[in-house]
Target: tRNA wybutosine-synthesizing protein 4
Amino acid sequence: VQGTGGSSAVSKCSAAARGYIQDRFLRLLVGRRRRRAPLVHRGYYIRARAVDHCVQDFLLKTQSHPRTQILSLGAGFDSLYFRLKDMGLLHHTVVYEVDFPNVACQKATLIKRIKELSALVGDVRGEGLGVITFSGEDYKLLGVDLSELSELERALEEAGLDNEIPTLFIAEVVLTYMENSRSDALIQWAAEHFSQACFLLYEQIHPEDPFGCVMQQHFSQLNSALHSLAQYPDCEAQQRRFFEKGWSECSVMDMNEFFTHCTPEDEQQRVQALEPFDEYEEWHLKCSHYFVLTASKGMESSWTPLLSNMTVPHCDGPVRMAGSITAVVCATHSEISGLRRYGHHSVLIKPNVILTTGGFGEEDGQHCRMRNFHVLVKHAGYWKAGCVKKENPDKRWDERLYHTVSCLSSSLAVVVGGRTSPSSAGLGMLWLKFPETSNALDPGDVTVELVSLQPAAEPAALRWRHSTTEVIFKGKKYLFLYGGRSAMEPVLGDWYFLHTQELSCTVIPVEGPVPESRHSHSACSWKGGVLIAGGLGAAEQPLGSVFFLRELEHGFQWQTVETHPPLIPRYSHTAHVHDGKLLLVGGVWFHSSSVPGITVIDLMTGLCLDYAINVEHLEWPLMLHNHSSVFLPNEKELLLIGGGGNCFSFGTHLNPEPVSLSLSNILTSH
Model:
């Protein structure tokens, strides 16, 4: 548990070094320096932002009081006191910090040794005595085990804590490491013993979904299990807990809500522009698995820092499910792993042959951008998996993610866009040629030839997280290239029509209301046009709109597809059209009570139904984002391939095997 405090201090320090948070004291308190990934920087940014937002609100609301105090539980090497003191916010406030005795001693030694820190504390009252390892006029550092409540009470009394003045308790990922009976007792003790009290809690929720399973497993492996989760799995349970333990007001929100509603727009934009970033799914999942809670009792005026600029009501409650579809591991006859990947693309190149290219995943036991092409061949009811023979292995397959592959005939496909790293420019186009006749019964029969392309339309292709869809205009086939993002533009809303013969851009007039820019949306061919659904919009907010680009005599027209109930905004899903129904598969949304399964939209009536995916037959968490899916219309079978990602600092999860869903029940015409 002490180790988690050390590593979180290192992460905060790295985030400060990159400009996410303003904190010049962290580097003095944290010995080791490590540069963390942008995803980790964002995660620690939102945590620091939430705590600061609430602490400063408390100081503001209580500034007319002659004396107030802050009690930071499990403070570790946090710099809160030094920042507040430096900003001149502690005129009449004493800060008490409590942590394990050896942590408190280490911190006290550091403060005494470092001039910049000891100068801020000013006069030191005597040497550290007993549990009080450091004592200044407005700063006391105590070495006590928080789970020993009577010892804690005795130490705080000795240090001069006053239970009659406004007091803010802070517990930032601390209580969850204690047994519930002990953390509950602490929450109740704070409410009962202090006449004017506020409590700020930041920790994890939602243990049961795929991301939650990976998160729990990570903390268990560190031997620092998260105890709160089983009894208090969501925001509502945590809120009830505080009411039951004697607090009169309590508000709570997950970090997606906090970032969206309590962080000013210009600040959101500042943070989004600090580093090249392309891990939206994991950022939003991390934020839906952490919450901030504020509770108060006995305060003269109500303390609700989380409601100050809230314009949107809290969580719209659970998503109504019309039923569920059972997932089973796909019966494959082979031992090769090649499908543990994400950000790849899978396409049906012949009736029973699926080609998967690119992405990031596991190759030869290493995590890397994928070089090998992979093929699944269906024969006599089961799938055989194998690696594809490349006819010209010297031709560079730029190891790309988030590209598209479109089949133009039974022997030709075109690869469009994709990226290597998020800071590099997007990649261009490639032809993939397969032998016309190959009656593939075995993966070894499939060969692919790569042909580099420098078509006139190349600049249009320098993007990723876009879509390319076949459309028909005046009897001719075109590829409709839409949306995505590039190294320069975080979100694109433009489109091109590429003539399928020479891949040159063709101008075709388009009328109607232009959809807002998006990436990570889905696009399907339908009636000669394209259905675009969902995606991530300009402010990194999921979109719930569905558009149909419809063929007219002289061009195309954008039309809005109205859905009822309205489609829950999502992105990073896949989609298929069958028999007048649009199927959306997986993805990421902000409804943290459940994960997206299969959504069926009736394109005639607009009726929109959500189905959960029943995973009881799978022995591992099924993460349905950055996956690919292939729909086999004759069998009404949906194959889910790959998916997963880098789960914050909890490790990378890759779905180990393809999964099959039978959709015949939900697709039979009623």
